[in-house]
Write a structure and sequence with these properties.
The protein is α+β, with helices and mostly antiparallel strands and 127 residues long. Helices cover 49% and strands 19% of the residues. The protein has a single domain, classed as Sufe protein. Chain: A. It has a three-stranded antiparallel β-sheet with strand order 1-2-3. Helix 1 crosses helix 3.
């Protein structure tokens, strides 16, 4: 009986380790995501949807463009515990009218994931 319990615990530890490594790799990848320098004045008016798929950093936004300005960004799918952070990033983008903003301290990967979703929406607006 003890042997079965030990094997079960070892199996759980291995699965947990694999999940942690996978998440760590996704976060590490997100930190290095390049964010394009888009000229917001060239964007077409409309509402565009963009998303970033990165495990627990995955998120989806709706971006409203009017007269070459981003006037609204709605969170359509929050990343894992990212709601407040996403709102902070969105505020910075709206204030600066740029994706080239400082990342939120201690949350570089989450910031980049949100910016990438916004960028993906704006790439549609530029077509």
């Amino acid at each position: 009986m003890l042997r079965v319990v030990l094997w079960a615990l070892a199996g759980l530890a291995m699965v947990g380790g694999i999940i942690l490594i996978r998440d760590w790799m996704r976060i590490r990848t997100a930190v290095h995501i390049p964010i394009s320098r888009l000229d917001f004045s060239l964007l077409k008016d409309g509402i565009y949807v963009g998303e970033y798929d990165g495990g627990r950093l995955s998120n989806k936004v709706g971006v409203t463009v009017e007269s070459g300005r981003v006037v609204r960004v709605d969170i359509l799918k929050e990343g894992f515990y990212m709601g407040d952070l996403q709102r902070q990033v969105i505020g910075r983008v709206l204030d600066s009218q740029s994706l080239q903003i400082d990342t939120v301290s201690g949350a570089t990967a989450s910031t980049k994931a949100t910016l990438k979703a916004i960028e993906n929406a704006l790439l549609e607006a530029g077509r």
